[in-house]
């Protein structure tokens, strides 16, 4: 990786920040919205580490104008957000809630007035609870439910959104929601997990078809990727690394890019692995316009046959720096990941759709929040992204995670990723040093 003191990104490189609906909006049942599975899940005893919910979160539903002003102050060129499916369709299907559409229209209008490009994600984990009660993503019909919802958004909001994503991190939905039960809907099922993954990818493909019929601009898929390393040179740990790589990185991308799933998955799941219809596998190859990659860390794997798939476990590295999430700070892994995607999948246009770090931030003091470790995290990963461009990766933009401190899913409010600190007792926003650092990066188009 280059150590030059000054780097510049290509002209037209897109700089943004990202959030998701349930993490920031609050008011989940306001103005006719229906409950999501995350609203239901977060209200279950002991589901969330600190007992938090998304009932208020960052109150973005009511403070979106203030937040757009913050985006403008940061110089953001783009804002990646997700739409709450149950705001639009309270029962998940059928009846449209006009007030839900109106909220997103108002948000989009403010963004466009501020010269900020909207980048909308159709599904960022919050499925309408009414659909969850019909089996959720384990129900084959879920792909069609998603396509109907997508048609509505493309018709109603498509003239205001140039960049769409179908799904955010389907692997997390499967692994955390259906394998380990720590995310909504809280299931632990080796039988459900493969079907959930398959139906999510079918939903993505049908969503892209809906976009070709009704949408404008470009559409893509967002996946989380994490390079895998072996904890030792022994064959058992090398095999564990290979399984972990197939399970996390190749499962979804092989599906949509190659029309097949890694052979290792059938071996790992054994009798729980289904036989998939050939027509389904052909559907998964529906062409889309870009790939979004969320990158945070790497994992170092050792063999753990007693664990569920991928029968591996991650090992902490002595002397390495870790974030509050327990994730190793490893920027060179971003370069490696981007190169791997280019080499395996034919050089698609790529956006880094999430990248950031949770650190323990001090309270705001005299209007300042000093977060030097996050500044260095961003600096290192931006250099890694630039190195990937130098090596020929077709990288089009970068979105920092996250614009705001927010509801961090099963971990509640204890982990803060934001460029902007949120005092959740007062909803006061304070731009952190990392936010000002990122503002300067955008202004320079580099470091």
Task: Please characterize this protein's 3D structure.
- It is an enzyme of class 3 (hydrolase).
- InterPro entries: GH, GH_1_N_CS, Glyco_hydro_1, Glyco_hydro_1_AS, Glyco_hydro_1_beta-glucosidase.
- This protein is α/β, with parallel strands linked by helices and 447 residues long.
- It is built from 15 helices and 13 strands.
- The chain has an eight-stranded parallel barrel with strand order 1-2-3-4-5-7-10-11, surrounded by five helices.
- Helix 14 links the parallel strand 10 and strand 11.
- Helix 10 crosses helix 11 and helix 13 packs parallel to helix 14.
Number of structurally distinct domains? 1
List low-pLDDT spans.
none
What is the H level of CATH, i.e. the homologous superfamily? Glycosidases
> Nearest-angstrom radius of gyration?
21 Å
Mass-distribution shape: globular
> What is the CATH level 1 assignment?
Alpha Beta
Order of helices and strands: EHHHEHHEHHEHHEEHHHEEEHEHEEEH
* Average predicted confidence as pLDDT: 97
Label the CATH architecture. Answer: Alpha-Beta Barrel
Strand order of the largest sheet: 1-2-3-4-5-7-10-11
- Describe the sheet with the most strands: 8 strands, parallel, barrel
Which secondary-structure class do the elements indicate? Answer: alpha/beta
């Amino acid at each position: 990786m280059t150590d030059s003191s000054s780097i510049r990104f290509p002209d037209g490189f897109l700089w943004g920040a990202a959030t998701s609906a349930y993490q920031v909006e609050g008011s989940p049942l306001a103005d006719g919205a229906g409950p999501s599975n995350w609203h239901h899940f977060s209200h279950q005893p002991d589901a969330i580490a600190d007992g938090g919910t998304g009932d208020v979160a960052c109150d973005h539903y009511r403070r979106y104008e203030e937040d757009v002003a913050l985006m403008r102050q940061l110089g953001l060129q783009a804002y990646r957000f997700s739409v709450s499916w149950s705001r639009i369709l309270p029962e998940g299907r059928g009846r449209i809630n006009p007030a839900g559409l109106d909220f997103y229209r108002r948000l989009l209008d403010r963004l466009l007035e501020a010269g900020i490009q909207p980048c909308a994600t159709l599904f960022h984990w919050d499925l309408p609870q009414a659909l969850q009660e019909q089996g959720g993503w384990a129900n084959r019909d879920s792909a069609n439910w998603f396509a109907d919802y997508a048609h509505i958004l493309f018709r109603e909001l498509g003239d205001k959104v140039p960049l769409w994503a179908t799904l955010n991190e389907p692997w997390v939905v499967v692994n955390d929601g259906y394998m380990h039960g720590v995310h909504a809907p809280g299931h632990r099922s080796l039988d459900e997990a493969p079907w959930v993954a398959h139906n999510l990818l079918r939903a993505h493909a049908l969503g892209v078809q809906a976009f070709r019929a009704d949408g404008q601009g470009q559409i893509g898929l967002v996946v989380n990727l994490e390079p895998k390393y072996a904890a030792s040179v022994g064959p058992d740990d090398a095999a564990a690394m290979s399984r972990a790589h197939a399970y996390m990185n190749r499962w979804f991308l092989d599906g949509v890019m190659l029309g097949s799933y890694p052979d290792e998955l059938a071996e790992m799941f054994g009798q729980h692995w289904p036989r998939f219809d050939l027509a389904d596998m052909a559907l998964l190859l529906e062409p889309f316009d870009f790939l979004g990659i969320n990158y945070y860390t790497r994992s170092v794997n050792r063999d753990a046959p007693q664990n569920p798939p991928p029968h591996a476990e991650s090992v902490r590295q002595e002397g390495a720096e870790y974030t509050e999430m327990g994730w190793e700070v490893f920027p060179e892994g971003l370069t490696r990941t981007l190169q791997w995607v280019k080499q395996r999948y034919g050089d698609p246009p790529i956006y880094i759709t999430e990248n950031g770090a949770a650190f323990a931030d001090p309270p705001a003091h005299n209007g300042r929040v000093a977060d030097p470790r996050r500044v260095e995290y961003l600096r290192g990963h931006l250099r890694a992204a630039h190195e990937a461009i130098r090596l020929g990766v077709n990288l089009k933009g970068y979105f920092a995670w996250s614009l705001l401190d927010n509801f961090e899913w099963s971990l509640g409010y204890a982990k803060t990723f934001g460029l902007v600190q949120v005092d959740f007792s007062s909803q006061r926003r304070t731009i952190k040093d990392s936010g000002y650092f990122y503002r300067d990066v955008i202004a320079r188009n580099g470091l």
